[in-house]
Amino acid sequence: MHRHIPSTRALLIFDAVARHHGVGKAAQELCLTHSAVSQQLRQLEGQLGLQLVRRSARGTELTEVGRRYHAQIVGDLLRLQNHTREAMAQRSDGTSLQVGCVPVFAERWLLPRLPTFLAEEPACSVHLQVYPTQTYMAEIPFDVAVQYDDAAWPGALQQPLLREACVAVCSPGSRHRRATERGDFSAVPLLQLSSRLGAWDDWFAHAGVAHTPAHSLGGHRFDLFYMLVEAVRADLGVGLVPRYFVERELQSGDLALAHPFVDSGLRGYSLFVARERAQERAVQAFVHWLTQAVAAQVTVTAP
C-alpha cells in the first residue's frame, strides 16, 4: 500500500526554510547547497500537489497552506527526534522501564526510595515521567504507573497501593498553633489547594473539629503542594497536605503539626500496569519492589 509520507530529509529542509524565511539561511544551517534545498522543496511540493513556498524578489515566504502544513509537521518532527533519542539512550546491556507518576508522589515518596530498587536491578534504566492528574491521555506511554485510584487507563491492570494520610501543618512559631492543637480553627486562615477545594470540610468532619471558620473555602489558593507548603513556612496560614510530603520538614522542625489528627480518608493511590507489559521481568521486579516498600512503610507507621 502506498503511504503518503514525504521523506524526513524533505520535511527537515522545509522546516528550515520556514524557520529562516529563506532558502539561503536554511542551506547554511543544513550544510547543503542552495540548489539542493530548492530541489527538495520542489520535490515535496510535487508529491503534495501544493505550493508551499512563494518565491519573490524579497525572498521566500510560506503560502497559507504552507504555514498550516508547517505548523502541523513541526510537532511531528520534534516527536520523531525525541523518540530517536529515547531509542539511542537505551542500554544495550540492560532494560528500560517507563514509569509514570503523580508529581507530588514521585518527588517525596518514590524518588527517595528508588535507589533501593536500582541497587536490586542495576541493569534497569528508569525513565520517570509525569502522569498528569485529571488529564485525559489518548496514548499512555508507561509500562507501570502510580496514580490516584480514579485515574483512567483503559485496559491496564490496577491494584490499590497506598491510602493518602493527610495532616494539618503550620509553621513552628505560628500564632494559631495553640488554638489549633486544642481543636479551635475558627480564626485560622486556611490555605487551599486549587484542585482540592472542600478538603478542609472533610478533614474537619473526620477529625471531629467543631470550631471551624465561617468560610472554609476562603483563604489563599495555590496550584501546587510546593507552593502551599512555602506559604505555610511563611506563616500565611495552616495547610492540609499528605503526610509523606512534609515528613522531612516535620522531622527537622521546619514545620509542625497544627493538630494531631491524621486523616486516611477516601483518597488513595493505585498501581497501574500496562497489560501487554505485565509479564516482562523489569515490570514484575518493579511491581514487587514497590508493593514491598509500601507494605514496609505501612508496618512502620501503623499505630
What's the SSE blueprint?
Blueprint: H1 8-20, H2 23-30, H3 34-48, E1 53-56, E2 59-62, H4 64-88, E3 95-101, H5 103-120, E4 124-130, E5 144-148, E6 157-170, H6 177-181, E7 192-193, H7 199-207, E8 221-222, H8 225-233, E9 239-242, H9 243-252, E10 256-257, E11 263-273, H10 281-301
Parallel strand pairs: 3-4, 3-5, 7-8
Antiparallel strand pairs: 1-2, 5-11, 6-9, 6-10, 6-11
Helix pairs in contact: 1-2, 1-3, 1-4, 2-3
Query: What is the ordering of alpha helices and beta strands?
Result: HHHEEHEHEEEHEHEHEHEEH
SS-derived structural category:
alpha/beta
CA-CA gap between termini: 65 Å
Unreliable segments of 5+ consecutive residues: none
- Overall radius of gyration: 27 Å
Residue share in helices? Answer: 40-55%
Q: What's a concise summary of this model?
A:
The chain is an alpha/beta fold. Helices cover 44% and strands 20% of the residues.
Give the key terms.
single chain; 303 residues; alpha/beta; two-stranded antiparallel sheet; 10 helices; 11 strands
Q: Could you walk me through the main structural features you see in this protein, from its secondary elements to its overall organization?
A:
With 303 residues, this protein is of the alpha/beta class. Helix content is 44%, strand content 20%. The strands form three sheets. Strands 3, 4, 5, 6, 9, 10 and 11 form a seven-stranded mixed sheet that branches. Strands 1-2 form a two-stranded antiparallel sheet. Helix 1 (8-20) packs across helix 2 and helix 1 packs across helix 4. It is elongated, with a radius of gyration of 27 Å. The mean pLDDT is 89.
